[in-house]
């Protein structure tokens, strides 16, 4: 047989499946340090002022570190949440919500953002941190401040995570309307 008589065998065509493109993942933009400072700075300033005011006021009558810590925590909570409630209510108003709806959503958002963090913070972390620092540091002003900062580290790790969760679950819009 001649070489010309042998039919050429062609390998079967390899069929490659079409490239599978994963669905687009919708992600929220990463929030930088400026966002968190703008969000919490005013509340922190007012909360710190009321913490020091009540903490130093009570130390004139009672010097027990736990009593000082409780007074300081009450003062800080009042100042901090008065500011944040106002901020969240203004966010709701920018979104066109008014009256009872705006107030109720403000409460829901504050609980969603701070509820878990506040429970752990108010009943465990902050009393322990402030009591310990007031006991260890001779100057009550610096003891209160050091305890507050120590407790804030734990609090903000939890609160920031909860804030992000409220946007991911669409309880809060990712970017509220600007004025």
From TrEMBL:
Q: From the record, give the transmembrane residue ranges.
A: 40-62, 68-90, 102-120, 140-165
Q: Is this entry keyworded Transmembrane?
A: yes
The reply to whether Membrane figures as a keyword in the UniProt entry is: yes
Q: Which UniProt keywords apply?
A: Membrane, Transmembrane, Transmembrane helix
| Name used for this protein in its record | Uncharacterized protein
Q: What is the lineage of its organism?
A: Bacteria, Bacillati, Actinomycetota, Actinomycetes, Micrococcales
